[in-house]
Design a protein that fits this description.
single chain, mainly beta, Porin, 18-stranded antiparallel barrel, 4 helices
């Protein structure tokens, strides 16, 4: 689950989703070790760590641990067994391969939803169809970064729910665009055409590694904060730079923002900047400290300013298990209003148990503004768990479970008292027909237990989706 900012209105989140499918052409990269290309619903851009580009190698489909020397040395009976279990191998592009490329993709989804308006008292069910074609064009090895923007489990609220494996670090720059057309059988007034376009750059200079992620989206699905379907336009901007001072010490700077423009509800802008210093204390342990400052510009309400003091750490237990944590305090100040002190934290772990099983657990607490009532801020704590099991090379099963607690509090004109406890469950099974296509069958359960009945709802969703990448 993303941060509360995303839950309350599609702000850029910290990580979330994971699945890729390669193009068959020899000039493109082999299938990454992430899961198959997933739902092409619109989601938000993510910030990624940076480093050096990997050397071309041989990759065995379905297993991040059977690459390079081990895979190449597999012979005789063992090789036959590996082929049967993991599928065919694909050679990565070699030296001299053109760096400019265009990737196209399309997704078709059929959904049965028993509460399309996430209503408490007047449930409306329907069947709807979604067609989402798109493309990405640019320079460099951007396939995994592109699919990170348009893959995995993105639920009805356009939130990313599944962790995304970090793409292989490399220099790249690309544009991508997806158009999503949705048609309802019985409620054609809810029909929509949503759009998602972005520009992404990651580049390593001799002393500085920089990233730029921008994204513009038009969304028309339901939103938990508002308790209904709504039309909005979201613009995200994130820029980061990492400067290593020595082998152990580095500075990182980030600046970004999100603009939320609602058709009928309260629009808002949020801008922030942060500066961190990190130190490699041990070979597997890095610690850091930093400052964050930002402002939320709210429609029909005074601006809100916030400052954070945070500590963070990462610990690579092994090549397969990584743990990260950050935490601190946030001071929220409203112009002419109240001052609120809120904790902020994030902690998570990703464990590649074996070539067939991946597990991740994440928890966080953060603050955002509400679009439903003037002057409301939201403090949100969430916990998410994801498990993926590859039954064999082409068939995989995954389950995502999450819980989110949101407290609304007044920082201006509002008198609304509201507490939400939201949970979701999503099991799914996916089958890859080839390196460029797959199908996914999924079930989703959403339940929001709200102290304000108009926002309380339950929802059951079943979907069948086909994905193609060329």
């Amino acid at each position: 689950m993303q941060s509360s900012t995303a839950t309350q209105g599609d702000a850029p989140g910290s990580a979330q989703q994971s699945d890729t499918t390669p193009a068959p052409a020899a000039s493109d990269w082999a299938q990454p070790s992430a899961p198959p290309f997933g739902p092409a619903q619109i989601i938000e851009s993510e910030t990624r760590t940076t480093g050096t580009a990997p050397e071309p190698a041989i990759e065995w489909r379905g297993s991040p641990d059977t690459t390079g020397t081990d895979a190449a040395n597999t012979t005789g009976t063992d090789a036959a067994s590996a082929d049967e279990q993991l599928g065919p191998r694909v050679d990565l592009a070699g030296p001299g391969t053109p760096k400019w490329k265009v990737i196209t993709y399309v997704s078709q989804k059929t959904t049965i939803d028993d509460n399309i308006y996430i209503s408490h008292s007047d449930k409306q069910s329907d069947v709807y169809f979604t067609l989402a074609p798109g493309f990405a064009a640019g320079w460099g090895d951007f396939r995994s970064a592109m699919i990170q923007n348009a893959t995995g489990f993105s639920d009805q609220y356009e939130e990313t729910r599944q962790q995304v494996n970090e793409p292989e670090n490399a220099d790249y720059a690309f544009l991508d665009y997806t158009a999503t057309a949705t048609h309802f059988l019985s409620h054609d007034s809810a029909d929509s055409v949503d759009q998602d376009g972005g520009f992404n750059v990651e580049w390593a200079f001799p002393k500085v590694v920089v990233q730029l992620d921008t994204r513009v989206q038009t969304l028309s699905g339901p939103e938990i904060d508002l308790g209904m379907r709504t039309r909005r336009t979201i613009f995200n901007f994130d820029a980061t730079a990492n400067y290593p001072v020595s082998d152990k010490t580095s500075f990182s700077f980030a600046a970004g923002g999100v603009v939320r423009d609602y058709a009928t509800e309260l629009s808002s802008d949020e801008w922030h900047a942060q500066l961190f210093m990190d130190y490699q204390m041990f070979p597997k342990t890095k610690i850091g400290a930093g400052l964050v400052a930002g402002v939320r510009e709210l429609e029909s309400n005074p601006d809100q300013y916030y400052q954070q003091l945070q500590l963070r750490a990462t610990y690579d237990v092994s090549d397969r298990l990584s743990i990260h944590a950050n935490g601190g305090l946030e001071v929220d100040e409203a112009s002419g209003g109240s001052t609120q002190l809120n904790p902020v934290f994030g902690v998570g772990a990703t464990d590649i148990i074996d070539p067939q099983d991946t597990f991740s657990l994440d928890a966080s607490e953060s603050t955002s503004s509400s679009a439903v009532t003037s002057g409301e801020s939201v403090n949100t704590t969430n916990v998410d768990m994801d498990l993926k099991h590859r039954i064999y090379s082409s068939l995989s099963f995954s389950v995502s479970v999450g819980y989110e607690h949101s407290d609304y509090y007044n920082q201006g004109l509002s008198t609304l008292e509201r507490t939400d406890n939201y949970l979701y469950l999503r099991p799914s099974i996916a089958y890859s027909f080839a390196q460029w296509s797959d199908v996914e069958l999924a079930y989703e359960y959403h339940r929001d237990l709200s102290s304000q009945l108009p926002f309380d709802f339950a929802e059951n969703i079943a979907s069948l989706q086909f994905n193609f990448v060329f």
